[in-house]
Design goal:
Length: 497
């Protein structure tokens, strides 16, 4: 037998299941059921604690409703499970990244890396300029790395810590982090979604990026203006005395600029296109080594020993990586801040993603996603209507399929011919896919992106969604440009005709 390379499924290889037996109203039954159940669960039953478990089960109930609809429309149970398996398989990398992000946060806390970032950050970033600076910093890191996820998991965590110490609302800060991170992710040639969108639409990468700046730059400028103004309106009354906080940090940790070497190495690896899993693992291990070098007594305490030896050091590092770790200080605000849940703290987010993939998989398996997209396509006949239909499809798929890749792939495949028939250049479609599919995924709590960012930053999705200005403004911008036909590129052949 010849040996063959086993290649993982790529997002662009995603097939679209069609079911002629299923009409639009039947396809929408699971969506309506899910919305009603989630609305009751979040607003009447559990509130902010809904993500601790009840929402996960609601997603499974929604999947059950979809399964019943599929059963009555001649879809085999095995086909539904196959699609669920494919969906869950596609999130393997994301789940492993989540676990390593939890591990990295643990070692970066116990080593003093995060406290050092907070210590120096508080001296540089005042509350007035903090939010707009956060957007810019995250934009630069995300463009360099091509990953909004990596940006949040490294500099984003530190910025959240600085915000908490300065008394700045965490929802605002998370919104600024996500706005900057998704701006960079959207424009970076190293981003997977930036490569995926033009592949689906039928254009090349750099044409796509150049054309995307037409809507992205104005949206980004509005975002910067918003956070600049918001920074000047922040009241600093009641914020803990900075000197006292800095002294408390110094008493609890050994603070040294040398600790910046660890995040610098991780960012360098990612810029050099090292796989994120490897970069995060290296960052976790280097954080553990830094803890042993710079915080030996702290490691020993976490490991249950009185002094550092092999066993207390080993247990201290492993505890920081895997379970909840708290570093006590004489400042109550810092006690809450200097707490990491390690890999254990990411299990709720992983649980949410898996349940979301079950719902999305069955919706795909019964043909509901294809039916909804086709129905939206038929609703509009004008050029603006085509853009609006594409945006609506991306939003609907982020909501129902719970995955940004599907929100790009399915509409990309469905609408490519429609854009061509209208004489529209393919970069119109690729730009619209990014403006509405990529950036809005993080606004849906049960979407893989929303669940990830909420879990990593420790801020509920609904708390930051309103402040993620760049993300929710992007689809409105693309529709505005389409309505007034601003920079809508036509195919050459169509122009000549």
């Amino acid at each position: 037998m010849q040996s063959q390379d086993i290649k993982p499924r790529q997002p662009q290889d995603e097939h679209i299941v069609e079911n002629k037996e299923l009409n639009i109203w039947e396809a929408l039954i699971p969506v309506f059921a899910l919305v009603i159940m989630l609305f009751f669960n979040v607003f009447y039953a559990f509130g902010d604690s809904a993500l601790e478990g009840s929402n996960q089960f609601i997603l499974l109930l929604g999947a059950a409703v979809a399964g019943i609809v599929g059963y009555f429309n001649k879809v085999k149970f095995s086909q539904m499970l196959d699609e669920v398996a494919e969906n869950v398989k596609s999130t393997t990398g994301a789940l492993l990244i989540l676990l390593l992000v939890g591990a990295l946060a643990g070692t970066w806390l116990i080593s003093g890396i995060i406290p050092t970032m907070i210590y120096y950050g508080m001296q540089i970033l005042s509350p007035t300029i903090f939010l707009v600076s956060t957007v810019v910093i995250c934009s630069i890191i995300s463009i360099a790395t091509g990953s909004s996820w990596t940006t949040s998991a490294t500099v984003g965590i530190a910025l959240i810590g600085i915000a908490e110490a300065l008394g700045i609302p965490l929802g605002m800060t998370a919104g600024a982090v996500i706005s900057g991170a998704y701006f960079g992710d959207k424009l970076s040639p190293m981003s997977d979604t930036t490569n995926l969108a033009p592949a689906m639409a039928g254009t090349d990468l750099f044409t796509h990026i150049r054309y995307m700046t037409i809507t992205t730059i104005p949206t980004y400028l509005v975002t910067l203006i918003f956070f600049t103004v918001l920074g000047f309106t922040l009241s600093t009354e009641g914020v803990a005395d900075t000197t006292a906080i800095l002294t408390s940090i110094e008493d609890a940790f050994y603070i040294s600029p040398w600790l910046f070497l660890v995040p610098a190495i991780v960012i360098f690896m990612i810029v050099r296109k090292a796989p994120p899993l490897i970069a995060l693992l290296v960052g976790t291990l280097l954080g553990g080594i830094a803890a042993l070098v710079f915080q030996p007594s702290l490691v020993a305490t976490v490991g249950g020993g009185e002094s550092l030896n092999f066993m207390s050091g080993y247990k201290g590092i492993m505890n920081a990586i895997t379970v909840k770790t708290s570093i006590p200080t004489d400042n109550q605000a810092l006690n809450d801040l200097f707490t990491s849940k390690g890999m254990y703290g990411m299990l709720g987010t992983i649980w949410l993603i898996i349940c979301a993939m079950v719902f999305g998989g069955i919706m795909d398996g019964i043909g509901a996603l294809a039916t909804i997209s086709k129905a939206l396509l038929k609703l509009f006949h004008t050029t603006f209507g085509l853009f609006a239909s594409t945006v609506a499809s991306c939003l609907a798929l982020n909501f129902t399929a719970s995955d940004q890749y599907l929100a790009i792939v399915v509409p990309g495949k469905m609408y490519a011919k429609a854009f061509k028939d209208k004489g529209l250049a393919p970069e119109n479609l690729s730009r619209t896919l990014e403006d509405s599919g990529t950036v809005t995924s993080v606004l849906v709590p049960w979407n893989t992106c929303g669940a990830y960012q909420s879990g990593v930053l420790g801020v509920d999705t609904m708390s930051y969604a309103g402040y993620a200005i760049f993300n929710w403004l992007s689809p409105f911008t693309t529709l505005l440009f389409a309505a007034f036909r601003i920079k809508i590129k036509m195919l050459v052949a169509k122009k000549e005709a």
